[in-house]
Amino acid sequence: MDGLDVLAVLLCVLVFLTGMVVFSFLNVVIYRLPKKQDFVKGRSFCPSCGCQLRGYDMIPVLSWILLRGRCRNCGGRISFRYPLMEVAGGLLCLLCLYRFGRWNGFFYQISGEMLLAFCVISVLAVIFWIDFDTMEIPNGLTAVLIIPAILSLAVMDGPGLLSRVIGFFSVSLPMLLLTMAVDQAFGGGDIKLMAVIGFFLGWKMCLTAFFLAILIGGVYGIAVLLLKRKGRKDHFAFGPCLCVGTVLAMIWGEQLLGWYLSLIL
Ligand SMILES: [Zn+2]
Fold this sequence. Notes:
- The chain is mainly alpha-helical.
- It has two domains: 1-110, no CATH class; 112-265, no CATH class.
- It has nine helices and two strands; from the N terminus they run H-H-H-E-E-H-H-H-H-H-H.
- The chain has helices at residues 3-32, 62-66, 81-100, 112-134, 139-155, 161-170, 172-181, 188-226, 239-264; strands at 102-103, 108-109.
- It has a two-stranded antiparallel sheet with strand order 1-2.
- A hairpin with a 4-residue loop joins strand 1 (102-103) and strand 2.
- Helix 7 (172-181) crosses helix 8.
- The longest helix has 39 residues, at 188-226.
- The N and C termini lie far apart (46 Å).
- The protein binds zinc ion (ZN).
């Protein structure tokens, strides 16, 4: 390996670690936000016994493995979700670098586009788990997404203003109409989220995201039914499907849409 290769590998490791640390913090937000606890101040504590975590027990993934998924103090289980989220954060940060980083002839450089995309994905990750846990998307989180959605107009060479304005309504309006016709077809939080996502992605990618979300929701619904975890009348949160659909559309949307169109045309 020459110097540039080493530099590229170092950059990837750094980007991965950054993603892990950010998602480690998001784990705290996901835990505390629905409980209306302050997630900026206050040390992390064990949810079982309430003991404060030491610094060396808060290293992403590594601490969980060393403690074998149990609290050092009380032995209570620490959910596998935490290290899973941290690894996902590292991978998603790398994906953002690959998709939105600037290629300089040797490796992908960190760009404003990449940072913005990772911000959006971070907020979506929080929405994913909070909706999964509580069946509700806090309005504040959708409101936070408005900032990168507007900034992306200047930073990303994505869709134009018209496509974004159409995108704002392209999925949210049909969802709203359907919900007015069929009670509880979609939650209000889902509709508001897709309005903001529509402005961020433009109408074409917003439709792609929604289509993917329905596919994911269908597969998830069938899996849940087969495992008999829920009755047929029970609802499950659709927000997580929308979040995954949106991230897929952000990273591979153009390719997926092209591939799909080549199948039907
Ligand atoms: Zn404990």
